[in-house]
């Protein structure tokens, strides 16, 4: 169940917005999924349930020399994880849909999708910077090298579900939606040791439909996560008319390499993302630190 005035606005706006979106393949071109925006009002709250995610891994303290190595200046340190986590997930029932987190902390959250690029330099970069990311992985895209993402997981970054083969969910049957989510959930749990808590549909498609929500419930994730900004090659694409980050915004990026980034590398794209965040005075926090997951 979704609660709050902000959420009530979400579902009406989301259903209208999703019908107007132009489909663009996640792997087609440099912009990827960012070219297809999800509902601009996606919910920022979730069902209430007294639970916790366990012991979250704190983001590594930034080291100036590590940032300098990549031509960057350290971002402001993220505040401690809130004791009262603003997004609370229920153990069962309808799952919430959200694209930002209700917080006054001047933080944003970086999410990276699919897994097409497996650049070892990116693992080195995240180790040097200590910047947390949340990974939404597509099984058939990562299955040739599950170990690459295990290295990123070992840095404290969480693995979440982004379907089996990147299907457009509103274009397939409920049975296919179920298989897309459940098969990926099983594989990712097997390889990464923890069932993915969150799900993101490719392109944000079908996020607010009853069929998709039912499939997510049946397969195990407890929320559907969209986004507010998407990183292109050198700049971000904003949903807000003022083209500015807001506290709690979720930013979408992709595991991409020179083929899709017009010659730029994954590390160069990520460095540009961090510069855009720094220019606006934000820190990067760990999304899972703001989510209270069900227990039992």
UniProtKB/TrEMBL annotation:
Indicate what this protein is called per its UniProt record. Answer: Polysaccharide deacetylase family protein
> Keyword Flavoprotein, does the record have it?
no
Which species expresses this protein natively? Kitasatospora camelliae
List the GO molecular function terms: hydrolase activity, acting on carbon-nitrogen (but not peptide) bonds
Q: Keyword annotations for this protein? A: Hydrolase
What broad taxonomic lineage does this protein's source fall under? Bacteria, Bacillati, Actinomycetota, Actinomycetes, Kitasatosporales
Q: What is its EC number?
A: 3.-.-.-
Instruction: Name the InterPro entries on file.
Output: Glyco_hydro/deAcase_b/a-brl, NODB_dom, Polysacc_deacetylase_ArnD
Question: Where is the NodB homology domain positioned along the sequence?
Answer: 106-285
């Amino acid at each position: 169940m979704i609660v709050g005035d902000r959420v009530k606005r979400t579902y009406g706006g989301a259903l209208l917005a999703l019908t107007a979106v132009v489909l663009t393949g996640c792997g087609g071109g440099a912009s990827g999924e960012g070219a297809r925006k999800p509902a601009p009002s996606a919910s920022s709250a979730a069902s209430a349930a007294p639970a916790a995610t366990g012991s979250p891994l704190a983001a590594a303290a930034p080291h100036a020399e590590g940032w300098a190595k990549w031509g960057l200046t350290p971002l402001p340190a993220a505040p401690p994880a809130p004791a009262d986590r603003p997004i609370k997930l229920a153990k069962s029932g309808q799952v919430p849909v959200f694209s930002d987190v209700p917080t006054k902390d001047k933080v944003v959250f970086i999410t990276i999708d699919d897994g097409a690029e497996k650049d070892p330099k990116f693992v080195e970069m995240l180790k040097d910077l200590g910047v947390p990311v949340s990974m939404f992985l597509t099984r058939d895209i990562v299955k040739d090298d599950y170990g690459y993402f295990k290295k990123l997981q070992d840095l404290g970054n969480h693995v979440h579900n982004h379907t089996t083969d990147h299907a457009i969910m509103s274009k397939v049957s409920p049975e296919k939606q179920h298989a897309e989510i459940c098969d990926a959930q099983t594989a990712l749990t097997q390889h990464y040791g923890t069932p993915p808590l969150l799900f993101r549909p490719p392109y944000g498609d079908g996020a607010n439909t009853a069929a998709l929500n039912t499939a997510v419930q049946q397969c195990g994730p407890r929320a559907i996560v969209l986004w507010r900004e998407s990183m292109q090659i050198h700049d971000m694409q904003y949903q807000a008319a003022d083209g500015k980050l807001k506290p709690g915004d979720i930013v979408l990026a992709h595991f991409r390499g020179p083929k899709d980034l017009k010659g730029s590398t994954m590390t160069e794209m990520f460095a540009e993302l961090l510069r855009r965040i720094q220019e606006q005075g934000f820190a990067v926090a760990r999304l899972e630190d703001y989510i209270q997951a069900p227990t039992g």
